[in-house]
Specification:
The chain has six helices and six strands; from the N terminus they run E-H-E-H-H-E-H-E-E-H-E-H. The chain has a six-stranded parallel beta sheet with strand order 2-1-3-4-5-6, sandwiched between helices. The chain has one domain: 3-Layer(aba) Sandwich (Rossmann fold). The protein is about 40% helix and about 20% strand. The chain starts with a strand and ends with a helix. The longest helix is centred in the last third of the chain and has 16 residues. Helix 3 crosses helix 4. It is globular, with a radius of gyration of 15 Å.
């Protein structure tokens, strides 16, 4: 499978590169574009400041440019938090998308979007300050209306970026469960 993996608001941190290596070890081809041009951040707040400086439109433009050379192959879009929201936006706009793997994040869905039978898997903490229960319920219903085939996995007590071993949110048990399920999902595509 060809996977475009986008980083969180904290930048292209070692955990993203480790995730890409894990995916490659399972036989996938993976690209990890650096939307922050080499900058990484220790906190979500610092990353969000950078995200705001760059702007949503510019981040999406960078993501589209990174994915464009490979989109004809039929990409699985994936991402962490901010990267998940970017992956979702790109997957819903790409009729050749093979799947969507969301880790720690979602995004708004335009009312006229269709994604007939697009396999979508979301992994998120429970509770998550950025992905509240009300938001996730509405997101799930809206994603279902697009025609996507959606699976949601929640991890009680885990922190927001629980798959990053270098952050305080890290939860080894939840992270390993996420990767086990996600790798199984990718095998079905």
């Amino acid at each position: 499978m060809n996977i475009m993996l986008f980083h969180s608001t904290q930048g292209l941190r070692p955990a993203v590169l480790q995730a890409a290596d894990r995916l490659r070890a399972a036989g996938h081809e993976v690209w990890t574009p650096d939307l922050f041009e080499g900058r990484t951040f220790d906190t979500v707040e610092e990353g969000m400041e950078q995200q705001e400086k760059i702007g949503k439109e510019e981040l999406l433009k960078r993501a589209v440019l990174a994915a464009a050379p490979y989109s004809e192959r039929g990409l699985v879009y994936a991402g962490f938090s901010l990267g998940a929201s970017i992956a979702q936006t790109l997957a819903l706009g790409d009729d050749k998308a093979r799947g969507l793997l969301l880790l720690h994040g979602t995004s708004d869905i335009a009312p006229d979007v269709t994604a007939e039978d697009l396999p979508v898997q979301l992994h998120v903490a429970e509770p998550d300050p950025f992905e509240t229960d009300d938001w996730l319920s509405a997101w799930y219903l809206q994603m279902g209306r697009t025609g996507a085939d959606v699976e949601v996995y929640r991890y009680a007590g885990a922190g927001h970026l629980y798959t990053d071993p270098d952050l305080p949110d890290y939860d080894e048990e939840a992270a390993e469960a996420t990767w086990r399920v996600a790798l199984g999902f990718l095998e079905t595509l």
